[in-house]
Amino acid sequence: DALPIFVTKWSNKFNDVEVNYEIAIKNKIVNVKDNKLAETNLEILYGTLPCGINLVKWKKANNSECSVCKQ
User: What is the pTM of this model?
Assistant: First the structure.
């Protein structure tokens, strides 16, 4: 089975860390009973979670600062 494209992204970002992505996918998506949590985990893995940094990158916001914690 081919691994999803995000594996290359995370492997490049954390090249010194050895990760078994098949187990990570199984534990964070497949075995999660709550569909919304599994969806959020998938968005995090693919880098598509609408957080401040992504919203600025997608030109949906002008500031990546969190409105709650101001970071």
Answer: 0.64
